[in-house]
Amino acid sequence: MLFTPFEIKETVDMFLQHKLDIRAITLGISLLDCAGASGIETRRRIRDKLLSVAGSLVKTGREIEIEYGVPIINKRVSVTPIALVAGSSEDKNYTPYAHVLDEVAKELDIDFVGGFSALVQKGFSTGDQRLVNSIPEALSHTDRVCASVNVATTKSGINMDAVRRMGEIVKETAEKTADKNGLGCAKLVVFCNAPEDNPFMAGAFHGPGEGEHCLNVGVSGPGVVKAALEAHRGASFDELADVIKKTAFKITRMGQLVGMEAAKRLGVPFGILDLSLAPTPAVGDSVARILEEMGLESAGTHGSTAALAMLTDMVKKGGIMASTHVGGFSGAFIPVSEDEGMIEAVRSGSINLDKLEAMTSVCSVGLDMIALPGDTTAATISAIIADEMAIGMVNSKTTAVRVIPVPGKRSGEWAEFGGLLGGAPVIPIHNAASDQFIARGGRIPPPIHSFRN
C-alpha cells in the first residue's frame, strides 16, 4: 500500500488538528481448547494462553504509535464467550473467570478484555444461565472485564425470557456499583445480531466461527469528517455524500495500514477493520456536530435521522473501497456520554430517548451509554431492550443496548463515569409501566423475511 507525500501530509494534519486516531486494536483469542471439567484447570489454561498470545500486544501497539505517529487509544483483547468455555466445568458461579481475565489484563496493561458473554437468542444452556447470573458480581469486582449477551437475531427472533432477565441483570449491576454511579453497566451490552469480529467494547467477543486468533481494528474520525464538511457549507447532499465517502476512504486506508502492520508483528492473521465513527467526550470529536454541520440547529431535531442515515451509508461506501476485510459494526456510533454534542442536545431537550431509538434504526449500533433515572424498574429496562432488539431483528442489523440506571439520580441530574466513558445527564423515561408485557416471556418470532433458505 503506497502513499503519496500529499496523502502523508494530509493524514498527519488529520491527527494533529482533527483528533483522528486508531480507537482500538483488539486481539481476538480462541479459548475453546482451554475448556475442561475442572474450573481451576480451565482458568489456569486461560491465563497461560492469554499471557502467551497477548503478551506483546501493548508493546507492539506502542511501537507502532511511535514509528508511525498514529495514536492508538486502546489495546484490547476479546475471547471466546466464557459461557462456552466454562460450560463443561463443575463451576456454578463464573465470577472467578472474570477475575482471571481482569488479572491478566492488568498484568499486561491491556485496557479491556471482552468476552464474558453468552449467546442466548433461542434459549439458555446451563452454562449460559450461570454466566448471566454471574454478571453483576463479576462486573462489580473487576475493572477491565466487559460482558455482553446476545438475546435476539433476525433468524431466531427475540428471546423474551432473556430480555426479561437482562433487565434484572442491568438493575442488579447498577446497584452493586452504586458508589460509582452504576459504572458496571457501562461494561455490559445486550445485543441483537451481535457480530463475532467486533473490536469495540463493551461488546467485543471472539466468536465461535472465528479462527484461533486474529487482530481486529477500530478506526475513528468524527472530527475529520466534520472538518471536511465545513469546507462545503451550502453544498447539495450529492456533494456532501461524496465528501464523506472520500474522507472515509482516507481514514480507512490509514487503519488498514496500521492493522496489517500490527497483525504482522504479532504473528497473527489480520481480521477486520471496523469503519465506525466513534466519538469521545472531547470537543471536536463528535458525531452530533457532524449532523449539525449538515444544517441542523441541534442534533435530534427533525431531519436528524435522515442526516445520520446518509452519514452512516457514506462511511460504509467509502471505507469498503479502502479495505478488503470490513466487519464489526461499521457506520456511526451515537453514545450519549461519549459525545459532547449529544450531551448538549440532551441537555437542551433536542434529544430524548424516543428520538435516540429512532436514530438507531440507521446508525451502527443502538442505545449506547445512556444514563437513566435510578428508580427505573427492571421491567422498564427490559422493555427498552425489547424495543431496540425489534429494530435490529426487523432491519437485519446489529442493535445493542447499554444503559445505566444511575442509583440515586433523577432525570436532569448529571452522572459522571470518567475517561473515554465521559458523563451524561440522566434522561427521562415514560411513566407508563410495561411490566405485564415483559412478564409474558416466551419468544417473539422472527420476521417473515428471515425465512430465506
Secondary-structure element order, N to C: HEHHEHHEHEEHEEHHEHHHHEHEEEHE
Indicate the structural class.
alpha/beta
CATH topology: Anaerobic Ribonucleotide-triphosphate Reductase Large Chain
Q: In whole angstroms, how far apart are the ends?
A: 39 Å
Mean pLDDT: 89
Measured as a percent range, the helix fraction is: 40-55%
Task: Summarize it.
The chain has about 450 residues and is α/β, with parallel strands linked by helices. Helices cover about 45% and strands about 15% of the residues.
Give an account of the 3D structure.
By secondary structure, the protein is α/β, with parallel strands linked by helices. Helices cover 43% and strands 17% of the residues. The chain contains 15 helices and 13 strands. The protein has helices spanning 5-18, 39-54, 57-68, 82-86, 95-108, 126-140, 160-176, 222-230, 237-266, 287-293, 304-320, 340-348, 353-359, 378-395, 435-439; strands at 21-29, 72-79, 112-119, 145-153, 157-159, 188-192, 213-220, 270-274, 367-373, 399-406, 414-416, 423-425, 443-444. The strands form two sheets. Strands 1, 2, 3, 4, 5, 6, 7, 8, 9, 10 and 13 form an eleven-stranded mixed sheet that branches. The protein has a two-stranded antiparallel sheet with strand order 11-12.
